[in-house]
What does this fold into?
Amino acid sequence: MTGPNHEKTDPRHSLLCFCVVIALLVVGIFLRLPPEPFEHGPLHALQSAHLQSHLKGVGVDEKIYRDYVNELGQLGLASYPRVVHNYVERQKAAPGAILPPLRALYIVWAFAWQHCFGGDAISALRNVAAAFSILSLLLATVFAARLDRSGYFLAITALMAFAPTQLHVSQHAIIDGVFAFWALLTIWSLWESLNHPANLGWKLLYGLALVALVLTKENALFVWLGVIVILIANRWLRIGTVTRGLLVLTFLAPAISLIVLMLLAGGVPILIDTYRLFITKNYGLKYSELTQDGPWHRYLVDLLLVSPIILLLAVGGIYNLTREKRLEWFLAIFLVSTYTMMCGIRYGINLRFANMWDLPLRMLALSQVCFFAAILQRWRNVALASFVALICITEIHNYVILEVKYPLYDLVTKDLASALQILKSP
It folds into this structure.
């Protein structure tokens, strides 16, 4: 392994690195598999070693998504406007917010999964969540491999394979891991489009990712605004080349998504009503008031509880930014801009929503690890590998505490502090 200096790997080590990456991917995918496949069959004995969530029952968000999938199963996909209409009527009478059915892509994926493979709606939702968490891991590996930084793809694969928040969303029927994948695909394809301005394929992938992002969750607004900030900052930082086609896609893709959402809702007025009711009713939801509020540094506190070493190293990576570190600037701008917007949402702060930051944080953290390892010069590769291994051990240890021993359904500060024995019951 080497740092960001584009030094080539010794060919003798290439096969070993490839084998280690494959092993890490196998372990990472195994950890992300939902519990259901292990309940019967020859792997049942490995259930306790699988490090899956031991949380029983169905969470509040999971029940809502389950109801939408079941409703689609009864009415058919063509009746989506009726599902949205039913939601608006229920939301008007409800004292607090109900998750809207216009988070369409996750619900439709689960509906399709159930139609193809059978099983109940909860299993379908959890399988889809696990599948997208696996896709995020694979995306991170490919992204890192394309950076042409020797050993980066191995280190990033390791750091993402054991990321606690990535593993958490793979074990529950929640949308955040699905959203994180599309957000990461948007950022990666934007990076590639900036650096390969003549390549139409990267631009088409970027547009597709933006469309899917908006169709997955309304939080797409934060990612889109983060993209706008990156494009503006590029004028001074020269991260890449902003073409007219890239700018057109940045605005055209969300517009296409809004048209699709309008069709799914059954018109513009009901589309507006859906989001207006969800936002305003969220302020009347006691759970959000008690668990999803706080100061601007609330996300930093939660990240420090779950992935302390990653956060501290990432902050160090931002502190050590130099002009030639184009990738690090790209990631830092995305993190800072989206963080600034997300931390100001009243009753809307939850570490699950920050799942899309996992890869950028780990890339910045690795940049700082490379900086430290370079001090040792001759033993740089050994030091770097040792640092990464140590981080992975602490990450999986925290995951076991939070998800297996405690276990958590939601990543809110009070529960995180209780699981880590910072808060103790009398």
The first helix runs from residue 11 to 32. The chain has one domain: 11-51+59-419. The two ends are 48 Å apart (CA to CA). The chain is about 70% helix and 0% strand.
